[in-house]
Amino acid sequence: MVWLQLHIPAPREKAERLEEALTDLGASAVTFRDGADEALLEPAPGSTPLWQETVVSALFEATREPSALLRELEAALGHAPEDYRFEQLDDRNWERAWMDEFRPMRFGRRLWIIPGGFPPEDPQAVNLHLDPGLAFGTGTHETTALCLEWLDAEPPRERSVLDYGCGSGVLAIAALLLGAREAVGCDIDPQAVTASRDNALANGVAGRARFCRPAELPEAQFDVVVANILASPLVGLAEGLAGRCRAGGRIALSGLLAGQAEMVAEAYRPWFDLDPIAHRGDWIRISGTRRA
Fold first, then answer.
1. Which domain holds residue 41?
2. pLDDT score of 16
């Protein structure tokens, strides 16, 4: 089957309204992509990440007539799109087509993320099986990679771990595969909690993992705390996350651009002796040890 795809550039504030209109017109799928090579901060759980200049692409059956489709879109929006492009596409599994770019990835010395359908590159390595999915955090973003490399370099053997803002559960699961005694992950997005539980089960660590909403976190301190979210929430959570980390415990914070380093570091210095900042491209990781 051949498909008709319509591409429309749109500013960020209009992209979601355009998505709604295209869906109402019968699009089989609508996707967003960067229209201007813009760095995009890893989003807060439950949010939709959009670029300042976004290209909205909609997939329709090839029987749709392009000019008629444009007239229907104009009626729905109240104006015609200023710019657009049509193309014909051969049939494929569009629901999973975007996953084609994913390949096994190594983080540090022995930790690998293995997407579904791929055999492990090294069966003796620590292999975390994870399909790219709707919940955020698959290891492809620099901030997730920084946290995975930190866990590989400091394996939390027989330690308890808190993954705050767990997304797909990748950091909590990696910690367990690297020897953690137990891990708790929390996220404000219920979809992320569900995805994390499924991924823990798929990796054989569900018995040592717990995933929940922040309000359901147990009253406990942890040996290791990781939080890969955003700069502003990390600043606001500084005292709370410090309280979750026991004396002598370790913390790793990411989701940060280099220009945000000092603001976040300053918020955590009252409780932590901080390590040198780690960089990956424009992104950074802050880590440290909890003082008594």
1. 2-94
2. 86
- Mean pLDDT of the chain, nearest integer: 87
CATH number for the domain that contains residue 162: 3.40.50.150
Asked if residue 218 belongs to a domain, the reply is yes
Residue 117 has a pLDDT of 72
What the block records as the tokens of 268 is 């955590």
Q: From residue 151, how far is each of 144, 145, 176 by CA, in Å?
A: 11, 10, 10
Q: Are 163 and 217 in contact (CB under 8 A)?
A: no
> Residue 200: in which H helix or E strand, if any?
helix 190-202
Q: Are 175 and 151 in contact (CB under 8 A)?
A: yes
How far lies 216's CA from each of 138, 140, 219, 227, in Å?
A: 24, 29, 9, 17
Q: Among residues 229, 228, 240, 188, which one has the least CA distance to residue 212?
A: 188
**Rounded Cα gap, residues 171 and 97, in angstroms:** 25
Looking at residue 49, its pLDDT comes to 54
How much is the pLDDT for 21?
A: 92
Beta bridge partners of 226: 163, 252
Domain-embedded: residue 120:
no
Report pLDDT digits (tens) over 206-219.
Answer: 999 999 999 999 89
Name the domain count of the chain: 2
Residue segments in the chain with a per-residue pLDDT below the cut of 50: 37-46, 94-95, 98, 134-136
Q: What is the pLDDT of residue 154?
A: 96
Q: Is residue 129 part of a domain?
A: no
